[in-house]
Every structure is written in structure tokens, then in C-alpha cells.
């Protein structure tokens, strides 16, 4: 975008030829007159005598200040000619003041404050996040243009609520249940091996093996993915031959709640959204984001009353909502769509969804329709 010169600052094309020639001639004369010259022998003698007088404290006052100069006049002429260029530069700084060396206006600090982390989520939001700047994500800023820019990084976004006794369940037992739930979320959604498609072994060390149907289902998902047994309903996994993470950060936001469980223990509900920035494994450095929201219901049961394994969680229920992943592929991986890729699948036929809207419950459906995302 070019800057329009002000009325009192003519452009270079409006300056008459005779005025331009006079400016050039005067400028060359000023440059010659201001060029450094070898001092004469007398000048060197005077300078040496003044130095000696200065050392004896006899120098005339003000001799170091030098003669006054009338160099401002040529500078004003030059400013007139360069007015358009300078005006454009001033306009650029006005649009983005942080370009000034050293950021004297403190705008970088203001921009950083605008992207400061959000406080932990302690209650269900009442609306979707507001609109973000329409910036494209890059390798250096993979969350640019996303509400997740202000979310916490990784496991730091899984903030445990204050543990309190629930009925006969002690505070310590509640605290244990909350910690185990966080470990389960990390193992299923944040562990680098899990995200890169490896077997999430840590998950099986957190869940109660006395849920044989559950273990059988999870193993079937990982061994033979299908539409009916898709591991991405529980694990966030990407095909390492297709994509790789764009950096080391996964953004996380959500909350946990707890109450007295149905099996003499404490029941925990976890509702968290994870945002994964990705690039193609072999291709241009274009960044895409996949957004996964998971709601888990788990319980730490009372081993003195029920046949359960001490220190292991019962996985009671799990729901998920996935944004920007092929909805017609069931090979056990999430497949993000990149902006430059032309869709080869069916046209979206499901509802329009904002994947960052955490104010609504996850809608239940048959999974056979591809929805349209409002943003990613």
C-alpha cells in the first residue's frame, strides 16, 4: 500500500528540472566543502599549542565546542525531496510501531500482553472464543490466528482442581484420582510416542486390567483399526509417514470435576481440547492444525468393597469431537487437511462446527457425516 504525499510535500515527479538541477549542484558543493582535508602545518601547530594549554588549564573557554555550523539548511532541502519516502516510513511505523529499533514505544510488550496465557479454566465457558487475528500459521508461529495461541502448553494446561473429601472418600483418595486422570490424558493425547503413532503402553498401566472387555477393545483398535474399532476415539495418533509435529508444543485447555462415584470411590470427569500443529512429512512447510476435544468419565473405585485393582482407573465412558481430520478414513490415524490441498473426499454434509467452542456438549451422531469447520 503506497502512501499519498501530503499537500505541502511534493513528489519527485512534481519538482521542476531547474529546481532539481540547482538542488544537485548545491548538494555537491556542500559535500565537497564538508569533506575532510589534511590540516596544514600551521593548523597542526595551533592544535598542539591548544592541547598543551589545556593540559596546563590555560585553554580559552569553549574551544572544544568547535565553530557553529549552518548545515541545517541543506538538510531541510533534502527533507523536502525525501518527504514522500519518509512519510511512507512513518506510515509503516504507525501501522507496526514495533519495527522501531529497541521498540521505544513499548508496542512489543503490548502485543505480548495480548497473547498472554489465559487463566486456567475453572467452569464451563458460556460461549465460543472470540475471533482471532486472521494470520496464517507458520513453522515459527504454528498457533498464529488460533484461539489456542493463549492456551497453556502441553501438560501445563491440565490443571487439577483442589482436592476435597467426597462423602466417605478422603481428600488423599480424591487427589490420587485426579493425578491418575491427568496421567491418562497425557498418555493418550500428549505423549510423543502416542502422537507419532506408537503403541501407548503407558495407558495400559493406568487402567484397571479387571476390565477385560475394555482391554480387549483397546487392543483390537490398535491391532486392526476399523470404523467400528477406531483408536482415534481414545488416542490422538498421526501417521509418521504422512505428517510430523510442527514444533514441540501441543496447546491444551479444559477442566476436571469430581464427585462421589457409584463404586464406593470418586468419579472424575475430564473435558479437554488439544490442538496439534502439523506439517507434511515430505513436502512444503505448510502448517495445518487438528483440534481434538475429549470428554472422559473415570472412577477410582474402592478396592475394599469391589473387585478392582488398587491404584487403577475404571474407564466408564469416553466421547470425542475431532476437527480437521478426514472423516472417511479408518486406518487408526488422524489425517489433517492442509489449506493448499484440494479435497478428494465427499463434500461436507454434516453441521457447521467451531472446534474451539467448549461451551456446548459433544453432539452424538452416527459418525457418517463430514461437518464443516468454521476455523482450524
Cα-to-Cα separation, first versus last residue: 29 Å
Q: Note poorly predicted spans.
A: 1-7, 58-113
- Multimer state: single chain
| Mean of all residue-level pLDDT scores | 79
Percent helix, as a range, is 25-40%
Silhouette = globular
Helix-strand topology string: HHHHHEHHHHEEEEEEE
Secondary structure: number of strands: 8
| Backbone structural class | alpha+beta
Strand content: 15-25%
What kind of sheet is the major sheet? 6 strands, antiparallel
Computed CA radius of gyration, to the nearest angstrom: 34 Å
Number of helical regions: 9
Gist?
This protein has helices spanning 17-34, 41-55, 72-81, 83-95, 107-114, 171-189, 192-195, 201-204, 212-223, and strands at 152-153, 243-245, 251-260, 266-280, 288-300, 314-323, 352-353, 372-373. With 376 residues, it is of the alpha+beta class.
Note down, in words, how this protein is organized:
With 376 residues, this protein is α+β, with helices and mostly antiparallel strands. The protein has helices spanning 17-34, 41-55, 72-81, 83-95, 107-114, 171-189, 192-195, 201-204, 212-223; strands at residues 152-153, 243-245, 251-260, 266-280, 288-300, 314-323, 352-353, 372-373. Strands 1, 2, 3, 4, 5 and 6 form a six-stranded antiparallel β-sheet that branches. A two-stranded parallel ribbon has the order 7-8. The protein is globular. The protein starts with 16 loop residues before the first helix and ends with a strand. The relative contact order is 0.11. Residues 1-7 and 58-113 have low confidence and may be disordered.
Amino acid at each position: 500500500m503506497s502512501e499519498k504525499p501530503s499537500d505541502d510535500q511534493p513528489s519527485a515527479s512534481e519538482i521542476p528540472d531547474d529546481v532539481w538541477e540547482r538542488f544537485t549542484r548545491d548538494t555537491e558543493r556542500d559535500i565537497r566543502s564538508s569533506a575532510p582535508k589534511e590540516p596544514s602545518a600551521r593548523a597542526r601547530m595551533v592544535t598542539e599549542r591548544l592541547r598543551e594549554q589545556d593540559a596546563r588549564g590555560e585553554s580559552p573557554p569553549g574551544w572544544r565546542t568547535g565553530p557553529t555550523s549552518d548545515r541545517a539548511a541543506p538538510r531541510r532541502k533534502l527533507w523536502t525531496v525525501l518527504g514522500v519516502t519518509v512519510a511512507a516510513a512513518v506510515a509503516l511505523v504507525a501501522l507496526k510501531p514495533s519495527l522501531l529499533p529497541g521498540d521505544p514505544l513499548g508496542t512489543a510488550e503490548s502485543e505480548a500482553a495480548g497473547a498472554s496465557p489465559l487463566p486456567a479454566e475453572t467452569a464451563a465457558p458460556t460461549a465460543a472464543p472470540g475471533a482471532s487475528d486472521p494470520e496464517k500459521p507458520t513453522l515459527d508461529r504454528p498457533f498464529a490466528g488460533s484461539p489456542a495461541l493463549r492456551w497453556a502448553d502441553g501438560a501445563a494446561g491440565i490443571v487439577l482442581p483442589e482436592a476435597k473429601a467426597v462423602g466417605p472418600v478422603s481428600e488423599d483418595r480424591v487427589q490420587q484420582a485426579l493425578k491418575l486422570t491427568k496421567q491418562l490424558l497425557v498418555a493418550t493425547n500428549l505423549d510423543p510416542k502416542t502422537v507419532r503413532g506408537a503403541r501407548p503402553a503407558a495407558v495400559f498401566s493406568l487402567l484397571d486390567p479387571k476390565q477385560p472387555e475394555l482391554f480387549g477393545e483397546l487392543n483390537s483398535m490398535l491391532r486392526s483399526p476399523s470404523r467400528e474399532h477406531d483408536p482415534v476415539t481414545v488416542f490422538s495418533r498421526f501417521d509418521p509417514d504422512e505428517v510430523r509435529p510442527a514444533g514441540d508444543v501441543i496447546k491444551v485447555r479444559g477442566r476436571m470435576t469430581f464427585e462421589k462415584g457409584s463404586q464406593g470411590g470418586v468419579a472424575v470427569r475430564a473435558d479437554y481440547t488439544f490442538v496439534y500443529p502439523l506439517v507434511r512429512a515430505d513436502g512444503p512447510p505448510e502448517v495445518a492444525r487438528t483440534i481434538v476435544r475429549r470428554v472422559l468419565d473415570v472412577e477410582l473405585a474402592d478396592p475394599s468393597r469391589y473387585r478392582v485393582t488398587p491404584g487403577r482407573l475404571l474407564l466408564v465412558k469416553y466421547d470425542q469431537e475431532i476437527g480437521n481430520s478426514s472423516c472417511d478414513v479408518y486406518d487408526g490415524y488422524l489425517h489433517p487437511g492442509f489449506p493448499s490441498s484440494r479435497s478428494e473426499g465427499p463434500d461436507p454434509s454434516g453441521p457447521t462446527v467451531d472446534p474451539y467452542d467448549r461451551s456446548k456438549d459433544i453432539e452424538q451422531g452416527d459418525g457418517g457425516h463430514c461437518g464443516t469447520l468454521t476455523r482450524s
